[in-house]
Amino acid sequence: MQSLEMPGDEFLLYLAAECQGKIRKLEYNGGAHKAELKFDEKSPAVVEIWSAEPGQGPKAVEGHVRGMLKKAEAAKCFVRPARNEFFPADALVVDVSDAEAAKAPKDEPRNACGQYGLDEDSQSFWRVFQGYAWYFNLGQDDFEIDPGSLTLARKDGNGKWVAMGR
Question: pTM (2 decimals)?
């Protein structure tokens, strides 16, 4: 189990791959609208962390993605379960209807709904938990972190570390 210091006296706990004695560690990079987790300052973001209002669930993802698309394209996009056995059970993707998807070529990976939408050529998906919408873009290789293990923790009133509310 790895830990990463986050803002607000919080820590991110996660499982990471180990290869030849080296453990893959994440670095935090905060920003005005989103935060990023990277393997180092030169690598692309592996995880983007966006705010999500309590109770918003998948609507938080839909709001972030639709806001970056042209109106006509945004109207076709919706959030659905990722339905990928290798992703966490709560993984989501932004996609088009089955009828719209049927128009795409059958012999190549399908993309839909812009940069944060479905990308069948990459291991990318959303999760909404602990007050945030988390976008994972784990590339094409084996996972170097376990995306289902990410947990934010902080000290409670008694000074004990506890997982933040889901």
Answer: 0.89
pLDDT of residue 166: 58
Contact predicate 17/143, CB 8 Å: yes
Each residue's pLDDT tens digit, 36-46? 999 988 889 99
Neighbours of 92 (CB within 10 A): 24
Residue for token pair 């009133």: 157
Instruction: Quickly list DSSP for the chain.
Output: -EEEEETTTEEEEE-B-EETTEE---EEE--SSEEEEESSTTSPPSEEEEE--TT-THHHHHHHHHTTS-HHHHTT-EEEE---TTS-TT-EEEE--HHHHTTS-TTS--B-SSTTS-BTTS-EEEEEETTEEEEEE--SS--SB-TT--EEEEE-TTS-EEEPP-
Report how far residue 64's alpha carbon sits from residue 117's, in angstroms, rounded to the nearest whole number: 10
Instruction: Give pLDDT tens digits for 68-85.
Output: 899 989 899 999 999 899
For residue 4, give the amino acid letter. Answer: L
